[in-house]
Amino acid sequence: MLDLKFIRENPDKVRAGLSAKNDRRGIDEILRLDERRRELIKEADALKERRNKVSMEVARLKKEGKDASTIIAEMKTVSDRISALDKERRAVEEKIEELLRWIPNLPHSSVPVAPDEAGNVEVRGWGKKPEFNFTPAPHWELGEKLGILDLPGAAKISGAGFITFTGWGAKLERALINFMLDLHTQKHGYREVSPPFLVNRASMFGTGQLPKMEEDMYALKEDGLFLIPTAEVPLTNLFREEILPADRLPIYVTAYTPCFRREAGAAGKDTRGINRVHQFDKVEIVKIVRPESSYDELESLVQNAEAVLQALGLHYRVRLLASGDMSFASAKTYDLEAWAPGVEKYLEVSSCSNFEDFQARRMDLRFRPLPEARPEYPHTLNGSGLALPRTVIAILEQYQTEKGTVKVPEVLVPYLGTKELA
To answer: Which of 351, 353, 366, 384 is catalytic?
Structure first.
């Protein structure tokens, strides 16, 4: 959530940032209400000061045995006015709060300004596209041939947009999850967490999924709970409404969870295979850090995610997202996209973002820079490290052989106990 004082003092900068994010909501109503709020406070404070002075005068008159009824009657009118002003102020503040809930984070100055993904910038690539002396098959053909992917079975039990991995496919998923968690905890310094997969409305609001993206979420309305769209939600909200001591930062946490997304706005996109589904597995990495180090921390977080792809030997590219292609809460985002030769596309397997203090403000998460210092808001960051099943797609399609088998990335052999899926 943006700071109201920042909006008041930097209206042109805020307007430019919102425009860069394709947000047409604007801040004029917020500024108008904020001006009214300050007028109400000023009038109420003046009346309260007057009431306090008169109260002392009433006490003096009574002590001297003099009549104070006229002054008391006047103060009754003043008190009624103060109550009315305070009531209006609370209503104005509630309206401001509601409007602020819908205002997205502003893009960082280093983010390219463009309305959509056409403005994304490729930062670097790693490895080379694999070359084949045959036409590479798409993952759904490989999965069916190898008996590791049962999409008809998933559709039968759940409907379109779900996956059933079987045999070596299920083992490959489990191997990838274990490998990623081991890498992030043993090499990158993250602490593993196993969080709930259902969270309350406050948690979804805290990380920015609500209210804007509510239609994309699976909700259990009777219980006031949501199936998580990503482990970012429970991991970051573990620290909601806390004031952390300075020595707690930085915090690095990681978790495996399933993720659930209705994808309400994505009907008809990439429906074949397992590229876009309603439930998928993911290993998430989250950081909570001091503001002055957050952009260095973003670069290292991206490197942590890249390390997974490099260990798997998968060709990929890193793209800096344009302002109009970023999420509601992000200030800067890099996407990691693995090459899938069977479908001839780069597929996003990780999105790494710095939210600055946007999420921390929404969840009232603060830290003390010094033991006696006033609490400040930390910066929060997260990224996929990595998301499945697109990582599975990249492995199947990049490591396929002419005979229809799939070689196992060397780093996964100890987890799978085989060098080839056949």
So the answer is: 351
pLDDT digits 0-9 by tens, 94-114: 999 999 999 999 999 999 999
Our answer to whether residue 261 is catalytic in this structure is: yes
Give pTM, 2 decimals.
Answer: 0.92
Total number of residues shown for the chain = 422
Q: What is the pLDDT of residue 201?
A: 97
Q: Which two three-digit tokens encode residue 186? A: 């043993």
From the list 39, 348, 376, 420, the catalytic residue is 348
All CATH 3.30.930.10 domain ranges in the chain, comma separated? 117-421
What fold does the segment set 4-101 form as a domain? Helix Hairpins (1.10.287)
> Which regions in the chain score pLDDT beneath 50?
265
276 is an active site residue:
yes
What architecture is the 117-421 domain classified under in CATH? 2-Layer Sandwich (3.30)
Residue 327: phi, psi to the nearest 5? -70, 165
CB proximity list for 263: less than 8 A, separation 6 or greater: 161, 216, 276, 278
Task: Exactly one of 173, 284, 390, 397 is catalytic; name it.
Answer: 390
- Is 390 a catalytic site residue? yes
The CA-atom distances, in angstroms, between 19 and each of 4, 97, 210 are 18, 21, 21
Which candidate in 276, 319, 361, 362 is catalytic? 276
The catalytically annotated residue of 37, 89, 261, 366 is 261
Where along the chain do the CATH 1.10.287.40 domains lie? Answer: 4-101
Distance of alpha carbon 346 from alpha carbon 339, whole angstroms: 4
The yes-or-no answer on residue 60 being catalytic is no
